[in-house]
Design brief:
Oligomer: single chain
Order of helices and strands: HHHHEHEEEE
Helix content: 25-40%
CATH architecture: Roll
Number of strands: 5
Number of domains: 1
Shape: globular
Structural class: alpha+beta
CATH topology: Nuclear Transport Factor 2, Chain: A
Radius of gyration: 21 Å
Number of helices: 5
Strand order of the largest sheet: 1-5-4-3-2
């Protein structure tokens, strides 16, 4: 006969393993096979805004072409990420410290893998991209992927306001600029 304490230990262990298998095996996040198609629209205004979002994500954020930021961001650029101040100039100063890198001609070679592009009305564009792989704290030696999102409100084909899921950097980050 198995002692009661051992039964509960075994039951608890089996439950924990079952839960880890149920909750710990999310499908990996993968980018779209043709990310450029996600940034196109039949509506002229939506197409312009989606194309601007693509240039922000790829040209500016992924490959550092911040010398072209005036093409895609308004001067006032309202920032809701708590690590940065509002305005195009503070964003360019924070991100534009490194030299631009060449943008691969084939979108399949882009370092940022685009998962989805959604819109609300004609002035809001949200881009979801792959984040990771990251170390899985539940399973040492394993990794996982998740999504990152950026959302912009556009005015005349330029991003005028930005949101993402950022938290305040413990290491100091860039801080808030003058607003």
């Amino acid at each position: 006969m198995v002692p009661m304490k051992l039964r509960f230990t075994l039951l608890g262990t089996l439950t924990l393993i079952a839960c880890a298998n149920v909750f710990g095996q999310a499908e990996p996040v993968v980018g779209a096979a043709d990310p450029t198609a996600l940034f196109k629209d039949k509506d002229k205004t939506l197409n312009t805004n989606k194309q601007a979002a693509m240039h922000i994500v790829i040209d500016l954020l992924a490959y550092g072409h911040w010398n072209e930021a005036d093409k895609w961001l308004t001067e006032k650029y309202i920032q809701h990420n708590p690590n940065f101040g509002s305005g195009r100039a503070p964003i360019m100063a924070a991100f534009g410290k490194n030299a631009p890198r060449p943008i691969p001609a084939d979108p399949k070679d882009w370092s940022t893998k685009i998962v989805a592009v959604t819109t609300q009305g004609k002035d809001i564009v949200c881009v979801a991209s792959v984040s990771g792989p990251r170390p899985d704290p539940r399973n040492p030696g394993q990794t996982y992927t998740t999504t990152h999102f950026d959302m912009w409100r556009f005015v005349n084909g330029k991003a005028d306001e930005h949101w993402d899921e950022a938290a305040i950097n413990a290491g100091g980050g860039q801080g808030k600029g003058k607003q």
